[in-house]
Each structure stands twice: as structure tokens, then as C-alpha cells.
């Protein structure tokens, strides 16, 4: 490969490593062209699966600021650049490897962190983004329903409380305004009529 072509290939790999949500490294030795096509199809449109040269990939990885991936860049290597749901893509790779043991998951990188093969397989066991969003929406709906029930109950509770207060006030007026009436009666003892009555008593 001529130098300009190598530089372009490195730049393209660097851009893919930088922009991808995650990248999974695989060994594809022994897989036919048809099987590779089936693998690409199973990964969907948001994952790019490409056979790469290890020497160029090492350069691209270092230029992208990723350290620790050299050990996985041995033997025939193909990269799955995941731009969509990481769990879905990892699940696709894991399932394909079960049916086609010639596909070997070496490891990968996500958020700048190096993943070994077991870590990639654990990603495949995670719930997809769609499932998590569905659960989140379901939880929000449940909370909104509970809130609506509480708000609906507030007027009836307030009405019952007012009704109980009204009944209590009828039996005991001091509950609402009785205290004010009682204090008025006490102050009436200081009126002139009350004073005359008291003087007559003293006589």
C-alpha cells in the first residue's frame, strides 16, 4: 500500500475509533465470504464490520489516544465499529459466535477503556436501550397514575373534612366562632347596666 493510501486508511480508522460508541475486535479466520456477509447483516446498519491490517490499526489507535489495545491486535483482525446500541451489537456478535465458532471475540474498547472478551460478552447480556427506555416510560406512567389518583382524592377528602367540621361546629359553636362570643360576654360585665346591677347588690 502506498504511503498516501496508508495515511488515508489510518485517518479513517482513527475517525471510526473516535466516533464509535464502542469497538469490538474479532478474529474471523476460516469464515467464508458468505458468512461474513451474514454477520454484517445481523449487526444492522449502525455497526460497521471491517477487516483491517493490524499495523495500520495500531497507528490509528495510538493517534486516537487509546492505550492498551496492542495485545489484541494479533492474527487476522476484523473490527466492529458500533454507532448504535452497544448491547444489541454485542449480543449480535455473541450469538453469531455461538453458531459460528470460527468467529472469536478478542475484546474491545468503550469510552476509552479496554475491554477483554469476557467484558464484551457481559455487554451482550445487558438490556437494550429500547427495553430500558420502555421500562423508564412504564415507570413514569405508573408514577403519573399514582399522582393523578392522589390529586383526584384531594377534593373529596377536603369535602369530607369540611362536612365533619360543619357538624362539629353545629354541636359546639366555639369550634369556629364560639371563642369570640364568649369573650364578648365577658366584656359585657363592664357595661353600665352591669355596674348598676352590681351596686344594687352591694346595697
UniProtKB/TrEMBL annotation:
Annotated PROSITE patterns: RIBOSOMAL_L10
Gene3D superfamilies attached to this UniProt entry: 3.30.70.1730, 6.10.250.290
Matches recorded under SUPFAM superfamilies: Ribosomal protein L10-like
GO molecular function, one term: structural constituent of ribosome
Family statement: Belongs to the universal ribosomal protein uL10 family.
Oligomeric and partner information: Part of the ribosomal stalk of the 50S ribosomal subunit. The N-terminus interacts with L11 and the large rRNA to form the base of the stalk. The C-terminus forms an elongated spine to which L12 dimers bind in a sequential fashion forming a multimeric L10(L12)X complex.
Name the UniProt record assigns to this protein: Large ribosomal subunit protein uL10
UniProt source species: Cutibacterium granulosum DSM 20700
